[in-house]
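ok trying again, last paste got cut off:
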Amino acid sequence: DDGSSARAIDHARRAWKMAQRLGRLDLARAARFEVADSSLTANRFSDAERIGRDLLVDSRRYADVNSEQLSLMVIGVVAMMRGNGKAARGRFEEVYELGTRTGQSYWRALARKFEGKAWLHADHKPARAAKALDQAARLYKTLGDGWATEARGETLRDLADAQLQAGKLASARRAANEALTVARRYQRNPSLSAAQWILALVAIKEGKADEALAAAGQAVAHAKKIDTPDLQWHAWHALARAREMKGMTKQAVDAYEEAIEHLGRALLAAGGESEREGYMSTGRVRQVYKDAIALYIKMGNSSRAMEILEVSRDAQLKQFFDPSKIETKDKKLR
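nice, full thing came through this time. structure:
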């Protein structure tokens, strides 16, 4: 939780090499997963997928079901973050089936949680997402207190997001509040930041500008303590929208610029052009650029709006704006 993905990857690689030297293949597989998982956090999807696929082959060779499930989760998350929801859900369903076969409710809960995330972030189908996430939250509740409660809190945050996107504000508010309560109990910066930024977005939709501003400010404060671009751009985007709602235009611009900078880091880490295009289609990635461009156009700063459009390299963004208000020299965007 210290926020350094690079340090986590380095430590995991060292543990992997040490386990290999000791001839402990089981520990080597566990360390390989940690490398893959830390690579996911850093948005290094190609590295995570390569390690995950190698680990899957190795796990099946040695009948290591636990490592098999971990590797399937890694491969599924990579697919999800590339915008391929169908492929992601296929991997998560394999995990769910293995969990059912071995009688491990933890794996069933985790698989349903990520099935919901795939429906939400890759497929943009919040109703389908809410159904899977609600099932995951119920499964986690049967597993008692401790780590299961913390996992349930993270699931509730995603459920709040799904309900928000489905236009069910009361349900979104309820889930977001509960997610924040759990996050405060465990005091982990990633969970606190994520719970606060979703609460800020709920407040914005409810028209509660002051609450949105306070929650988004807390989200950014926690995000600053960790080196996770994905979390940082979410928090700064929420703060930008809250400031814009309050009429704090200059401060909103500053927040949008922060969000774009961190999002740029996430896109760069994602890999090549195809990986970048896939990531652009997930979650609120495209919305960050869209909102920033819209504000700059509103301010009459079409040159900066054009620059952001070109930085995004996203042809779909072009269709949202009046061509007389924004022009680009990038042939890909014409």
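cool. Residues 153 and 181 are 8 Å apart (CA to CA). Residues 249-270 form the longest helix (22 residues).
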